[in-house]
Design brief:
Distance between the termini: 50 Å
CATH class of the largest domain: Alpha Beta
Number of helices: 15
Structural class: alpha/beta
Helix content: 40-55%
Number of strands: 12
Protein name: Toprim domain-containing protein
CATH topology of the largest domain: Dna Topoisomerase Vi A Subunit, Chain: A, domain 2
Pfam families: DNAG_N, Toprim_2
GO biological process, one term: DNA replication, synthesis of primer
Length: 399
């Protein structure tokens, strides 16, 4: 419980622990496979926030970083949103858990949120698996606009196309959906490419041309520099130039060109599993893929068939505990699609069974050689019999 971040040691009281999320409404945070890895706890009563006129505790409390939970890799709602992201062709990124829940209720099942951290390269690598289009729907206050700009620059470097939807000032997505879900839908439909979004926002916020120009240089120029497609970048530079009549377009091109280039986002591969792990057998690889099918499509006829066949092939009583890499789960989802047939896994099951039998046959041959070396006639006969049985089973696979 301590390692999972569910309890905490009391200050000044070694060996005394308390519930980290006591008196809070809990939001489970799941990874893309639907496994709970952390929680966010929200104070239920506003009275709990204040003591003697001072703030006592935070309104929201997140799980700490643990072996299972890394904030820079997890997006709230991704397990339920990933299919909708593929279907609708874009991810909607909002700020908090309540925003996600209400967005899903309003019909935007492609909404996800950060969990107490800024958007990271790993978040973007995860989102890019499902769609290369990102819509930012963040708070319209100055802090929200800055977060939108930072997120957009990172997203451009990750190779995503970025739009933003404009919210009324002082409103977050949850507020607007609660008050007028239709208005929220219209604003999403009217979302603009991020450069045009900021140009319109700044033009309304700042009437002084010099201060407006400074905002464009500080916020929009880095966005332009992050666009890798030169044709697209040129298009948005022309859009920007219309708002800066006193600045020659060639000067904008030159200013953008001189900005430092950010590193391209690459999906991070954990060293431990690849560099230090011993080579795995074909049956272990196939087993992992089958378990990924069960995790990706729980409570479906496909998963039930895979489980039953797994038991038959391995003669096991239960599925082995395993930590499945996101890359394996993603590969399975890409292969099988959104609503696979019950027999979609038959080819994989056949490959797994063949690998299990082949490895058992190889072990039986090794046992036969050891028996022959011992000159024990009964051991030799038993080993020969086992080899013969496995050889017959292997022959059914055409090998």
């Amino acid at each position: 419980l301590l390692a999972a971040g569910l309890i905490k040691e009391a200050d000044g009281k070694p060996g005394t622990y308390y519930d980290r999320f006591r008196n809070r409404l809990l939001f489970p945070i799941r990874d893309a496979a639907g496994r709970v890895v952390a929680f966010t706890g929200r104070i239920v009563s506003s009275e709990s926030l204040v003591k003697d006129g001072t703030v006592e505790v935070a309104k929201y409390l997140n799980s700490p970083e643990t072996e299972l939970y890394h904030k820079s890799e997890i997006l709230f709602g991704i397990d339920r949103a990933k299919n909708a992201i593929r279907t609708r062709g874009f991810t909607m990124l909002v700020e908090g858990q309540i925003d996600v829940i209400l967005a899903h209720q309003a019909g935007f099942a492609n909404a996800v949120a950060l969990s107490g951290t800024a958007l990271s390269e790993r978040h973007l690598a995860l989102l890019k698996r499902y769609s290369e289009n990102l819509m930012l729907v963040l708070d319209a206050d100055p802090a929200g606009l800055k977060a939108t700009a930072r997120s957009a620059v990172l997203a451009f470097h990750a190779g995503l196309r970025v739009k933003a939807a404009r919210l009324p000032k002082g409103k977050d997505p949850a507020d607007l959906i609660s008050e007028d879900a239709k208005d929220f839908s219209l604003r999403v439909a009217a979302a603009k490419p991020i450069v045009e979004f900021f140009l319109a926002e700044f033009a309304e916020l700042e009437r002084d041309q010099h201060r407006f120009q400074r905002l464009v240089q500080e916020i929009i120029y880095p966005l332009l520099a992050a666009i890798s497609n030169l044709t697209e970048r040129g298009y948005f530079i022309e859009k920007t130039a219309r708002y800066l009549p006193e600045v020659p377009i060639k000067d904008i091109h030159e200013s953008v060109r001189r900005l430092p280039k950010q590193p391209v986002v690459r999906e991070v591969v954990q060293k431990s599993s690849i560099l230090t792990a011993s080579p795995r057998s074909p049956s272990e690889i196939r087993s992992e893929q089958l378990l990924a099918v069960v995790h990706a499509y729980p409570h479906t006829p496909l998963a039930e068939r895979v489980i039953l066949e797994y038991y038959r092939i391995t003669e096991a009583q239960e599925l082995p505990p395993v930590s499945l890499p996101e890359s394996v789960l993603f590969s399975i989802e890409q292969t099988f699609g959104e609503d696979p047939d019950e027999r979609a896994g038959d080819e994989l099951l056949r490959a797994f069974e063949e690998a299990v039998i082949r490895e058992a046959y190889q072990e039986a041959v090794a046992n036969l050689r050891r028996a022959e070396a011992s000159k024990d006639a009964s051991r030799v006969a038993s080993a020969q019999n086992q080899c013969a049985k496995l050889s017959v089973r292997l022959a059914t696979f055409g090998s």
